[in-house]
Write a structure and sequence with these properties.
Blueprint lengths: L2 E9 H8 L5 E4 L7 E7 L17 H6 L5 E2 L2 E16 L15 H8 L4 E17 L7 E9 L4 E2 L3 H12 L1
Parallel strand pairs: 1-3
Antiparallel strand pairs: 1-7, 2-6, 3-5, 4-5, 5-6, 6-8
C-alpha cells in the first residue's frame, strides 16, 4: 500500500505522544479489524475545562504544548501512520502494568474502562515523509481523509530494537 485514506480519530496530545515515542499503545474497550491507518487529530477534548486531569503530571507540559494540532480552514495536519502489531486483552485491574507506555493517569484509564476488559492496541508508528493538511469524513472512531496520503519514505518513530523490546515487555 503506497497511499491511504483510512484514519483513526484520536486526541492530538495522544497522537503526538505516539509520534515521538512517549507512547506505544492505545487502550480501548473494543478491538479492531482495521490494522493500519493514519492518526487524525481531534480537538474536542480540549474544550473541557479539566482535560489536563486525564494526563500524568510529568506529561502535563507535553500535553499543553500538543493539545491542538496545526490547522487551516478546518483542515488538520496529519503526520503519522500506525500499524496495529498486536491486540492484547487485559482485565481492568491489570492494566496498571502498562503505565509506562502511555501518558494518561490511572484514574482516566479506569474511568474510561469502567470495569470492562481492556483491548490494548500495540502500535508501530511511522512519521510520514511530509505532513499533510486535510479534512476527514464523519466518523466516531474511524473516518477517511478527503485525499489520498502517500506512505512512501515514512520512517518508524522508534527503532526496531526499541520496539521489539517494548513488544516483548507488553506481551510477555
Amino acid at each position: 500500500m503506497t497511499e491511504i485514506t483510512k484514519c483513526l480519530n484520536e486526541w492530538n496530545a495522544t497522537i503526538e505522544a505516539l509520534g515521538c515515542g512517549k507512547q506505544s499503545i492505545l487502550i480501548r474497550k473494543y478491538s479492531t479489524t482495521l490494522n493500519e491507518f493514519l492518526l487524525y487529530p481531534t480537538v474536542s477534548y480540549a474544550n473541557k475545562d479539566n482535560y489536563l486531569d486525564s494526563f500524568k503530571n510529568e506529561d502535563i507540559d507535553f500535553v499543553k504544548e500538543n493539545t491542538l494540532p496545526k490547522s487551516v480552514d478546518k483542515k488538520y495536519e496529519v503526520k503519522y501512520y500506525a500499524k496495529v502489531e498486536e491486540i492484547i486483552e487485559k482485565s481492568a485491574n491489570r492494566i496498571g502494568s502498562l503505565n509506562k507506555y502511555h501518558i494518561w493517569t490511572r484514574d482516566h484509564v479506569s474511568s474510561y474502562l469502567n470495569g470492562n476488559k481492556a483491548k490494548v492496541w500495540l502500535l508501530r508508528v511511522y512519521k510520514l515523509d511530509k505532513p499533510i493538511l486535510t479534512k476527514r469524513s464523519n466518523g466516531m472512531v474511524f473516518a477517511n481523509t478527503n485525499k489520498k496520503i502517500s506512505l512512501t519514505n515514512m520512517k518508524p518513530v522508534i527503532s526496531d530494537v526499541e520496539f521489539n523490546k517494548i513488544k516483548e515487555d507488553i506481551i510477555g
